[in-house]
Amino acid sequence: MSKPIVAIVGRPNVGKSTLFNVLAGEKISIVKETPGVTRDRIYADVEWLGKRFTLIDTGGIEPDSSDVILSQMRDQAQIAIDTADVIIFLTDVRQGVVDADSKVADMLRRSKKPVALAVNKVDNQKFDVDVYEFYNLGMGDPLPISASGKLGLGELLDRVIESFPEGAGEDEESDIPRIAIIGKPNVGKSSIVNKILGQDRVIVSDIAGTTRDAVDTKVKRAGQEYVLIDTAGLRRKSKVREDLERYSVIRAVTAVERADVAMIVIDAAEGITEQDAKIAGIAHEKGKGVIVAVNKWDKVEKDEKTIYRHTERIRQVLSFMPYAKIIFISAKTGQRLSRLFETIDTVIQNHALRIQTGVLNEILTEAVALQQPPSDKGKRLKIYYMTQVSVKPPTFVLFVNSKKLMHFSYTRYLENRVRDAFGFEGTPLRFLIRERKEMGK
């Protein structure tokens, strides 16, 4: 299911990060009384009146600044505007309408996106009359709010969800597997897609990439249809710098949201980096199937241990996702691209795999017999039974006598036993712990 994207934009120091943190329900953005602290976008999932959406916090827009950092932040905000379904335009009642606000309003008008104009820091009745000045921006009715005082936020969120596109959150082609091709700029994402399409000549149709900066291409292989979401896309007219590392993160967030499987492309010659790990982390957090495609393998000088060394390094940097499938490919030569769809099919099947409760509990009984559950102060953890409650990703509930006794390491042990028994390559597993009184009492 695809969630709408909502971006908070505005010039520096009007309270964007404070508003983001309040709506997200936790302190994620750095809040500091210095313009330019939030230099890149940060995202969180938010729900209001049953509608879920992804909220993006942006760096402040300084429309005319020649400062390198501020101009990069302006480009970042432009990406958010291009990507968003709805925009919250945040202003500051205490500073009134300034020239920069008018220029931001012009940017937003050009985007032709729905805009909710919020006037922040209205935490005192004496400021109420000052709100009317913001009608001059020509962005509709201004909504008075106080992010720090949590005032007026319900009306703001009502305005936001009213503006969602019709059918937002629905996916007409949910039966067709969607593969998001994500990664840093210049690792060869588009080259892989082009090679696949050129090799197989299997284009069914090109689908407009919705409002997001991605191109969806439907392909057919061995009778199975797939949608490839290529996040490389085109350079924006705003001449966004391709080397801005957060550029790839926001594209990954929006593409992964719509995908079943995320294929993280890394550059074999460069090796895996911290930025690759951040992008991979998005797919992990959102519970998607994961393939790590090591591209440009033709450029690497090899000996008998080269693949082993690269694999070990990837496993080390992506230690939080040991389940990821790794494949070494070359978009240039076509090396192993024929095996890519076999890998994709395996991950899709595992991501939707459901195990019967009886079989699961046989594994659980055996696991408990091999390694006793932990105890504390004479009280030992008892696990009554385990059942799978959902797929995509496979999610299991463990019923226990005490959640406090269920140590993370023992949950990981049980996960490993489940993986040993059923594979689940390429997909994260979720384990939920539920407390239940002593059985039979």
Structure in words:
It is built from eleven helices and 18 strands. The chain is of the alpha/beta class. The strands form four sheets. The chain has a seven-stranded mixed β-sheet with strand order 8-9-10-7-11-12-13, with helices on both faces. The chain has a six-stranded mixed β-sheet with strand order 2-3-1-4-5-6, sandwiched between helices. It has a three-stranded mixed β-sheet with strand order 16-17-18. The protein starts with a strand and ends in a 6-residue tail after the last strand. Mean pLDDT is about 80; it is low at about 30-40, about 200-215 and about 235-245.
What's the main sheet like? 7 strands, mixed
Q: How would you describe the shape? A: globular
Number of strands: 18
Helical fraction equals: 25-40%
Give the structural class: alpha/beta
Amino- and carboxy-terminal Cα gap: 42 Å
Give the low-confidence spans.
28-41, 199-213, 233-245
Q: What percentage of the residues does DSSP assign to strands (E)?
A: 15-25%
Averaged pLDDT, please? 81
Gyration radius from CA atoms, angstroms: 24 Å
Number of separate helices: 11
Widest sheet: strand ordering: 8-9-10-7-11-12-13
Order of helices and strands: EHEEHEHEEHEHEEEHEHEHEHHEEEEHE
